[in-house]
Write a structure and sequence with these properties.
By secondary structure, the protein is α/β, with parallel strands linked by helices. It folds into two domains: 3-182, Spore Coat Polysaccharide Biosynthesis Protein SpsA, Chain A; 189-252, no CATH class. It is 31% helix and 17% strand. The protein is built from eight helices and nine strands. The chain has a seven-stranded mixed beta sheet, with helices on both faces. Strands 5-9 form a two-stranded antiparallel ribbon. Strand 1 (3-8), helix 1 and strand 2 form a beta-alpha-beta unit. It is globular and about 50 Å long.
């Protein structure tokens, strides 16, 4: 099968998030096949997914095992904490020229996102966010996914992106960096963009999981999500002493 989307979600809470994301995708892409990988296929929302695959040995990074099990020639993997706003358009055509496509992560000035599981890399080669991954099912890409899973296990960490960063730096795999509207981590960017700048497509926010940490009611509406992100941004600046009105001095304080 040519194009499709997969989710990997273990446990009822993350499965519910994946189902909400899949419903948002189904609303704008009704004919695009959507698969779910989960440890309890019988618990998945009936009729929402085209196929539900069982995860036999679930762990916090089961996605690294499941991505290679895709039945699609060209796959879009989405984390559970996403919402799809608009049709994906010609996104899959990126894979006519590249085997992999992801977007840059945020917080690129922090040690967390500058971390690499290999040697150091330039600041201009940051981690790529692994919550939205577009990839081709080719022998080369499947081998890359298998090595990513292997090296993550050997590294023994909790985050897969430092391993991915090191592998991409070392590899000659052809990959593309997606523009931020396909993995929008900073909703307040919507307030800065001009009318012709972008077409926001995929929202990706940890605010969609705040209720799992006991921080307020569950957010399911994109407008409410944007407002929650605005409040989170305000709190971030307050935590470092306030937002300097000088936009250049503001970022030099740290």
């Amino acid at each position: 099968m040519k194009n499709g989307v997969i989710y990997v979600a273990t446990g009822p809470d993350y499965r519910a998030l994946a189902e909400a994301s899949a419903r948002s995708l189904r609303a704008v892409e009704p004919d695009l096949p959507i698969d779910l990988f989960t440890e309890s296929p019988e618990a998945a929302e009936a009729g929402l997914f085209d196929a539900v695959h069982r995860i036999v040995d679930p762990h916090p990074r089961s996605k690294l095992d499941c991505m290679a099990r895709t039945r699609f020639d060209r796959t879009l993997f989405l984390d559970a904490d996403t919402l799809v706003l608009t049709p994906l358009g010609d996104l899959f055509e990126v894979l006519d020229r590249f085997e992999l496509a992801l977007a840059h992560d945020v917080r690129r000035a922090t040690a967390l996102i500058r971390e690499s599981a290999g040697g150091p890399t330039p600041y201009a080669f940051p981690q790529l966010n692994s919550g939205v991954v577009l990839y081709r099912r080719s022998p080369r890409m499947l081998a890359f996914l298998a090595e990513w899973a292997r090296r993550f296990t050997v590294a023994g960490g909790s985050r897969d992106q430092p391993v991915l960063k090191a592998m991409l730096w070392e590899s000659d795999l052809r990959f593309w960096v997606l523009p931020p509207e396909f993995n929008l981590r900073r909703m307040p960017m919507l307030d800065a963009w001009e009318p012709g700048d972008v077409l926001p497509t995929i929202l990706h926010s940890h605010r969609l999981m705040d209720h799992l940490r006991g921080d307020g009611a569950r957010i399911t509406d994109p407008v409410a999500l944007v407002e929650a992100e605005r409040q989170a941004l305000k709190a971030e600046w307050e935590a470092v002493g306030g937002r300097d009105p000088d936009p250049f001095r503001r970022f030099r304080k740290g």
